[in-house]
Recover the amino acids of this structure.
């Protein structure tokens, strides 16, 4: 049985293991950067199979108006079981009805988000990081 938590930040090595298994492109070679990413995020939802971290979402929000869902990652052997959708549902519950959830989809996930209720928008912009 999968359990969901919003009251802890998983260990960096567990986060890296999920990222590496999931196929998400994150700087997993740089544990210090992963640690900082989570230290500076204010809504982390995690999925657990017993003591094993199997999925997570990482967000930055003001809890009043908007929330940027920065990461959604599920271990490969746990994908297609509804864990990603449930992580988003738990995140939205924490946010409440007044907060808009915004994300940038990885190319491999573009078709996933409309299936779980997201609307594609065309008015977004990006300024890419240098490293």
């Amino acid at each position: 049985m999968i359990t969901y938590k919003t009251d802890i930040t998983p260990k960096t090595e567990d986060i890296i293991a999920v990222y590496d298994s999931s196929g998400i492109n994150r700087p997993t070679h740089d544990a210090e950067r992963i640690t900082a990413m989570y230290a500076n995020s204010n809504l982390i939802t995690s999925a657990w199979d017993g003591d094993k971290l199997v999925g997570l979402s990482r967000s930055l929000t003001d809890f009043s108006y908007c929330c940027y869902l920065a990461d959604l990652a599920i271990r490969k052997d746990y994908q297609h079981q509804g864990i990603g959708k449930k992580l988003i549902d738990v995140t939205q519950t924490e946010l409440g009805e007044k907060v808009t959830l915004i994300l940038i989809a990885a190319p491999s996930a573009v078709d996933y988000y409309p299936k779980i209720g997201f609307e594609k928008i065309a008015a977004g912009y990006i300024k890419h990081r240098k490293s």
User: Anything to note?
Assistant: The beta strands are 2-5, 43-49, 52-61, 66-74, 100-102. The mean pLDDT is 95. DSSP finds four helices and five strands in the chain.
